[in-house]
Fold this protein.
Amino acid sequence: MRIDIITGFPGILEEPLNQSIIKIGRQKQIVEIELHDLRGYTDDRHRTIDDYPYGGGPGMVLKVEPIARALRDIFKTYPEQDADILLTSPRGRTLTQKVATELSLKEHLIFICGHYKGIDERIHALFDVSEISIGDFVLSSGEIAALVVVDSIVRLLPGVIKDIESAWSDSFSDNLLDAPYYTRPEIFEEKEVPKVLLSGNHAHIEQWRQKQRETITQERRPELYKNYLKSIK
């Protein structure tokens, strides 16, 4: 997979993209990630990427010209028809595990990091841009949202995580939250690991974990539990 990220603030992304799971994916050449500094596509000496909104109102708006130039620069090397362009925006489709899985099957993703009040709407008239959100709240930086989406995708790519089954069985993979887990020591400050996990009976362990997942989901995310019940009918 190739991921291009267009951003006015590359410093927010540089270090996180070179840590942990994403770093492993890049080192193994399973995913190629490149940052594009939006200010490098401006044409004024102040390297301006934003301006006041037409019609007035508070906040600033990302200019369309540098973003269009950045996209066209990418398309000089990588065909536009093979790319999925995603704009981080509160208006977008909400990121879920299902969405992350869908995106993990793409060959080329381009992220435009939203910022300020928003982005000049004409970008949608010029390119096929989808919007994506990480939740019903507003961040000061679309870079953070892009990082969340990228991490959720990269960890699902075969070869990045040693045990891919671990990633595919995480919370939300089947409308259930995950079960509790324990590791050594067996007893800590008089608190013991559940006996069933020490039994060696894998069938009983799986039954216990499934029951835990259902109980936790029902208590903490009842709307998710309803979806689970519908899925098993």
